[in-house]
Amino acid sequence: MLRTLKKTARRFLRQHRALKAREAGGAGAMLLERLLQDNPRFHMQDGSLTNSWSIQPDTLRYIYGLLPPEAKTVETGCGQSTVVFAIAGARHTCVMPDAGEAERVRQYCVRLGVANNVNFVIASSDKALPDVARIPSDLDFVLIDGAHGFPAPIIDWHYTAPKLKVGGVLAVDDYRMPSVHTLHSFLCGEDEWELMMVLQNTSFFRKLQEPKSLVDWRGQKINVDYPGY
Ligand SMILES: C[S@@+](CC[C@H](N)C(=O)[O-])C[C@H]1O[C@@H](n2cnc3c(N)ncnc32)[C@H](O)[C@@H]1O
Prior knowledge:
By secondary structure, the chain is α/β, with parallel strands linked by helices. Helices cover 40% and strands 22% of the residues.
């Protein structure tokens, strides 16, 4: 009993110190600014590396600020956002099919002196996310920014939403794109999600309750105008 109490107190102190360091513009905040300044190119487009797919700097800063110490996190897609999770010390799982991107992110983290705390799952998210053993649960944060073709963002949400804690945050990037906007507007209407923030190209939702079962359509606000609701 005493040992458990001491362990809890130590963990609390560690988290408290990490938060204070972050507030005071500690090492993590400096590394984040260095990343934004470097603006590294991780993605291959038409035979050359680009950084134009990266999440916007202020949105990356916002994501960093939302991550609790030792956050448990999952993202679909990879890039500068992955480095942000690494800098924040998250226990992070990154799902995407391009091993080259993972390697470039890994090497950049080494150059920054950031600990290797990212678990890369090199596979398309629609194949990897249903594999319960590969994707952790009890998540604090989920970022959906992988394949953008319909219905990929919805598939990503479908498999990650139940693994997000109540109170956890779901970020949907490129929410204005029609294939992504379907998910964004569905979440805006439902009781289980609260729109926290829209920043640049990304919308942020807090999970308020477990999602409803897929078995029935009644109770889902998306169907409110349908006869028999
Ligand atoms: C817009 S970029 C992500 C940008 C990243 N969040 C950043 O801040 O740099 C889209 C990502 O989705 C990945 N991707 C493409 N197809 C995918 C799939 N089927 N499953 C998961 N990720 C995929 C790409 O490899 C790329 O990393």
